[in-house]
Amino acid sequence: MSKSAAFFYTPDFLRYRFGEEHPFNPLRLELTVDLLHDCKLLDPADCLPPRVATADELATFHDPSYIETVRETSLLGYPTAEAAAHDLGTEDNPVFADMHEATAAVVGATLQAGETVMEGKAEHALNLAGGLHHAHRKRASGFCIYNDVAILIHFLRRKYQARVAYVDTDAHHGDGVQWAFYDDPEVLTISLHETGRYLFPGSGYLHELGEGRGYGYAVNVPLEAFTQDASFTECFETVVPTLLRAFEPDVIVSQNGCDGHVWDPLTHLSLTSLSFRRVPEVVHRLAHELAGGRWIALGGGGYDIWRVVPRAWATLWSELSGRPLPPRIPSSWIDRWQPKAPERLPESFDDDADTAPPIPRRREIEEKNRITARAAVENASPLVRGIRGMA
Ligand SMILES: [Zn+2]
Which residues are catalytic? Predict the structure, then answer.
């Protein structure tokens, strides 16, 4: 049995494209895959062509009327009143031709990543086009048409009766996934994100804890704007290992949005490469410690497509595959893409120390985040906190 990591990619992912002016740009995937090739980190044998999810699979999470509307809108190529009722054709979620097929391909790849890991064909699997964590049962949201994460977790629950830990470090709250499993104690959702006070989707507060039997199995760590690496990784390490060890998952699903980087144009976190190296390291260790190595990693947000996403996601794949990054970004990659890039492309995987310079409010931000992270652990169900038998 191979103990490698599987990488799911097809150029069809580039069809998931809202348009020229839209921040969600699939070119970031091409830039990343190209970088991995130049770094010799991607073996043709690791790359598996994904399949397209069926309507039945989409319907394990989405309402059939919504799927039908996406299909129709996809054919028409413009939004109808019916589409508008499902938040399609908005500024965030414009309609594009083949929208249904393009998103179903992303979902198919995520399901295959799940299958590959659960069947033991690889210990870890990655779908960088996945992580569309905002889509709701009946509506598009935040650049997400179908929620591949929620569909994956339903699949892991139904087919394998797996206990699933979901760890979301996108700068935006993983709301669609949280609400999908809000009453399910077999699915622990943890989201660290910039506070929803001013940022989309405006949820992900400490008091969102789950409901019914799932109470205490939704965990949120809303962080202050301008949070830097030291505080982010401190909060991550306060919350995630503690709760995962107590929860004892069969499999870990991670959403690895990299829009918390200080250069990202859509959010106000101030992270650098350090956080995007540290998070997958910890998740990787926990997957082996707790879940027989089973780890399904997905992409997510990331809107500095030239300077941030390729480096962050190459770092993620390096962690999954166990293959070290080269000391520098290959000059072949820089030479190929610099003429098209609006900014100077970095030459190193690691950001400089002054990428996110210290700010006057730093101590206050760190202290607030520390209190938030401790409260998130305190609020979790006693079963999640690991106080078994005392509840
Ligand atoms: Zn995001």
Answer: 134
